[in-house]
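User: For my dataset I need records formatted as: sequence, then structure tokens, nothing else. Please produce one.
Assistant:
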Amino acid sequence: MVTTEKVGWTRWRVAIALVSVIAVSIGMGGCISKSAAPEVQVVSVPIGSSTQTIVVDGLRRTFHVYRPGSLPSAARSPLVVFLHGGFGSGSQAERSYGWDAEAARGQFLVVYPDGTNHAWNAGGGCCGKPAESNVDDVAFISKMVALLEREVPIDPDAVYATGISNGGIMSYRLACATTIFAAIGPDSATMLGACPSPSPISVIHIHGTADTRIPYGGGEGSGEAKIDGPSVPSVNATWRNIDGCAAPDVTVSGSVTTSLAGCPGGRAVELVTIAGAGHQWPGGVDRPLIQMLLGLDPPSSALHATSTIWAFFSAHPKEAT
């Protein structure tokens, strides 16, 4: 489904300026510029957090990597790509959603790329300057994953993408446009633009029924990015059809409803709905000022999205069709 997005650029720039003022305290990054620098500037991944730079289509792109000290040196490790939301950055996402701690427990790498102008070109006119300039974020993320596979023993059957809002929309675009990933885990997102010939992939989607920015029932959302997309259940049904899944089993626990469909090749398509939750990352760090600047609601305590998504990812590597 092709959709449109209108961006209020004046308020967008004001928000980015406010974010920049507090960048020292929260470590937000994402400065992108044209560069004639070498394509790759860092050639190894140290233990802990580090930053690398590559040049894609003449743009200097940055990404932040967390490598746990417990990572087995001789084994191929899973890789999770986390895509920040609009107005966010890779370093902000690293601090907000608990993926470093999950990576240490689960023994995998996690990488937090920076979008241009704090956004991703996620399809269907979304979002902001990257969409306006037609920045090739699919090429950037593909190149980033290929680079990391040369630097660290990565399991090519255990590469995953997740993200919030604009980042979650971008994860759907990656599922439509590449065959890199075994599974994706969008949160507070939808699927925009065309997806003509996707390969089967496992999907877990988390969404609150009270999300007004990307409404659960579809249609135009509130906020600066007037995202107008299909309903979340219809997106989930689309991927069940792509994957050739069986009818889903539905379970309810408190405010959380889970619809899980088994699919050929060991894949699965899951929808986790949180009644009354807004536009947020469940179980994330509650930082009211940052949430206001990023257009997020307080995080729901009904679910820990990071551990839920990782449990799904770890159970669904690539399988034979």
